[in-house]
## 1
Amino acid sequence: MAPPAGQPTGAPQPQHAGQPSSTAQPQPQHAGQPASFAQPGQATSAGQPPHVGQPAVAAQSQQAAYPHGAAPAGVAHPQRASHAGWQPAVPAGAPGAGHPQPGQPYGPQPGPQYGPRPGQPYGPGQQAPWYPPPAPPPPLPTLWERLSQDGAGSRILAWAGGVVTLLGVVLLLVLAIQRGYLGPLPRVLLGAGLGLVLAGIGMRLHSSPAARTGAYALAATGIAVLYLDVVAATSLYDFLPPWGGLLAGLAVTGLGVALAGRWDSELLGVFVVVCCAVSAPILTAGFDSLLLGFLLVLLLGTTPVQLLKRWGGLALAAGLPPVVACVVNIGLAGNHRFGADATMTAIMCGVTSAIIVLLTVLTAVRRPDDDFALALLLVAPVPGLLAAILLPRTGAAILPAALGVLLLAVWVVGRGGLLPPRFALAAGGVGLLALLQATATAFDGDARAIALLAESLVLAALAVRLGLKLALVPAGLFGVVGALLALVFAASPGLVAVPPHRTPKLGTVVSLGVTGLVLAAVAITLCWAVFRLGVLTDAAHAPHGWVPAGIIALYGSTAAIVAIGLLISPDRDGFLLGHVLVTVSWTVGALVLLLRGIDSVPLRVAGLSLVVAALAKLVLFDLSSLDGMARVAAFLVAGLVLLAAGARYAKLVAARARS
């Protein structure tokens, strides 16, 4: 007798009256069943051997779920139902019993194995259901597929027609001016009428979904024509004062971008901005302050919509034209062409940089993951930094310093969590570069090296105070630049190692001493900050930091002590006295380090290294460069100090060994 429909055949059938007992006997294992699916001698349910393709674990789970016999009718085993190639067993005595079904080979069929859905607990005895994996995302369409889509040709034709129409309007205005067609007022009115007509037709067509592609292009072209008409009325015909033209341009830009926001079309806004920015220099007859004002108006007019709609492309399209115009204007003002006022140009460039930085901050607050805002932040300070060449030294230092302070303020705000970390870090890095330029401009000669080294010292101290490892990068940059300038100017090897042939100036000697002190302090502080912040933590890396720092510190201290000798006697005798003091100070420093480092390996190593340095200076420099009593004094004093150091150090070591 066949089992009821949907009932697994692996469970024993109930015994009916008059039914032969052979139907209730356990069925043998089908031919071709692999042994790996059932252990020998292990029954799956009620003495039933496992079926083809059914693991023993699945049979045990079914026995745990239905301990009193067969599963209810219509309930299939989840493992069997999901196993690839599983078919219900054929009842004993039925045709085809013990043979595979048509189209199904012997044994389990290979198939994809899927895992359970995560996050769903299952009780004891329950088998976790199996789910197919998620479908992969569809591939992005290629350029050919996009061009082959319905409507692609109409979009290309519509936007190309808008560009050509706008170019024709510009050429018509230029030709009318050159040949005297009509008068100034009819030209302006004709341009305004054409812009209104094109914008009106676009708004009319937008009500029909089938014609919206052409509506976008017509409306964008009309708005661009209106903006250029305002530029012409202000710069060419003087119908509007500059402030009136800027306000009118702001109104037209605001209306155009507001329309783009209403229609939810970023392409419309970008088209208007790019066309206006490219065409405006043609009507203003070059790059001047008025053109820069119109471009800033274009930027300000797009800001509310791009912040509201989160349109990064529109922000970049409106932010780059003022930067480009400033760079070109700086080049023209530097060459004194077209009567450009260099001071006004520099001020406008600084204002442009500040405005773009503030707008990028607003954009980063609104869209923390926007890469366009970060890119615009990196190029925003370029006009202000380049415009410093147009100003005298005081102004050339104030302009980049103001930008540096603004960018560092942005970094401070970003550290409070109001801005993305990478945005704040970029602002801080660019701000420090601006301060570096301001420092290099404000000071010259020996004072420049001292100022840069002092800034490096302050940055290293702030890095340790704030626990900010990245601040060590600008600190190291300032330190390297300052050290190079010191070696070339303020504390050159000629001043330190060669006796003066004539009396040096007091300012030169003071600069030598201050530079040496600051150089030594920067070397020690930077190395200490590197280890304090954990940049170098392993004891094996200690020589990589302290050896170069010690060499630089020794050079700086030597310069400072030689300057002391020259202050005592500004001649050869003072120079020799300074070097005697250098040798004695090195030996005394070695003694202090050895005594303090009786229990510290780094201090002990530093003291012994300083002893080696003092002996090397005695033999290589003092013996050949010093003469007379200076040479004798250097050797005697250094020898006595070393003898005292050796005796004292041996006594301390012996006492430490006894204790």
## 2
Amino acid sequence: MYADPVFSRGSTLPRARHDPIFNFDTDAVGTATTFTDVNDGLSATFSSPNDPGGGFVVFSTFFSTLTGHVLLDPGPAEASNIPLTIAFGSNVTSIVLDFATDGSSLLTMSALENGTLVGSVNAMGIIPAGCFYPEGTISFNGARRSQAVWGTHGKP
């Protein structure tokens, strides 16, 4: 089994100027990728290589530090270990994301500007007391980007 990312209602995109915050609490449970949310004039389109068909789905949380609705895989397409792509309506310079995985694999966030890699970071979650899944925060700051891709690699 591969670890798969879960993206929380606390997903903060971006964290520089006016700080729009994206969460999935206004998205209906069962909403599958591809979909677009808009906050404070900035759009974020959530998709995966398994779309159409729903690589990820909005789901009610069962995690400790992630509250409200989360973006979870497998979605309706029943695909696991797939990346999530977030395309922004304009460039951002900072991204902070709360996450959970279903195993001990690294979560990698790759930042792209017009399809060109401008950087990447890795993070691992820790299992909160009384819980079963690693949870954590990952962030990327500095370079301008129009797109971010999250995914896990390795087996738990």
## 3
Amino acid sequence: MSDSPEGHEQVQRGVVSAVGAIGAATLASRVLGYLRDMVVAHAFGAGPVTDAFLVAFRIPNLLRRLLGEGALSTAVIPVFTETLTRGGPTAFGRLARAATGAAIVVLCLVSALGVLLSHQVVAIMAPGWRADTGLFDLAVTLTRVMFPYLVLVGLAALAMGALNAHHRFFTAAIGPAVLNVAMIAAVLGLGQLLVQLPELRRLGVPLTPSAEWRHPAVARIAHRLWPAVFALAAVQITVVVNTLLASLLPTGTVSYLYYADRVMEFPLGIFGIALATAALPSMSAQAARGELAGLRATLEFALRMAAFVAIPAAVGLVLLGGPIVRLLFQRGEFSAADAVLTAQALTGYAVGLPAFSATRIAAQTFYALGDTRTPVVVGFLSVAVNVVLALLLMWPMRHTGLALASSLSSYVNVLGLCWLLRRRLDGPRGRDLWRSLARTLAASALLALWCAWTSGLVPGVPGPARHGLGWTVVALIGGVAVYGAAAAALGSTELRGLLGLLRRRGGPLPPAGGR
């Protein structure tokens, strides 16, 4: 593929098509996840038992996200793609078997270590619970039950990397949906792995392990892995910090943050993470071929598309967060007061949604270039900022302050990464991004007026008389229509790319320097 405008557009069309497949699979996963959370909220509300379960689940789930949606796939995909591009299927098959053998050994050791150290892990994650022996012991027991699934979900991440290197995205992305269906003890990740095996077999990818641990590409994966764990996990590390600090606040705080984070992750997972996942194999291939102009074009395209979706989504979550939380969770033991407090946390998280989306894209650009150091340095800075802000905001703003600290620190992360990318790649180019951002902000301002009116927040202007289920659905659908119409009136080229995605036929894409 040539490093020309036509070649760039072909890559972008491939990214758009992949986002459609990943987004559809992620939508299924998120819907099933919400059904799971609705059942938990109905049965247990936002009390101490739910807090214990969420802390226990968050520890191995954090590792799942680092492996399945972050560091392992980010370390594996560039090496897999480079091997497939330069060495062909035979060299790729040899690498896949060697990586599988090494992964089984490492994952089993980490899982066993987690079971043995569950008491210490919970003590670190929730130090405020040491005074409540029953609650602490329950969290330890649940953590020991959860840890073994890390082995299977890690192998599922390896399979996902192999599929993505072949530009097969839907099967890999549907795995978490199976996880939500089969959420039982140590078999949690089994379905997530098995669902990917038939397509791997059709592609001729062997995942039977070998003992060739000294394969040079395995060493490159290991070299990329640990820096990627920290650099791409900055968002997840802030979640751990928030959980630790939340245990020092009143009972229920962990639950409020968890449910709010789940709502915020709906647009983030369906489009933000999907876009970063779809772009990584293309960027890795461009870097392997030395097509830096094409890599810059793909980066700029991904950032503009991410902002086009994340900014209005953040506006909607801030202004309609209360009705959305009530619609999803307020039933059974989950009270109206729980809904109000969860909506407050959602506001804090929603502020950072654009940064959460862009951080993944910017960080993975460095990994496509083989640079593991820069994202680590910026990630350390981001986490340090989060800790300082969380300590400053948690007492006056309680759980909302913890969520807001995560959001603000993510802006430090993405701005630092983009500034360094501009120095290295002469891009992303500020002028093009600012033009796109100006259109997106203008359309989002009209969306904000709509949301404020439907919520009765406009002074002197009467809003809708009812705020039930039907009103919430109408407000959400109307908001999408208002934003889409405003973007079209402003001549948004990003809208054409998104409509092409929705139609699944790769419509016109935003040019690198388009107005």
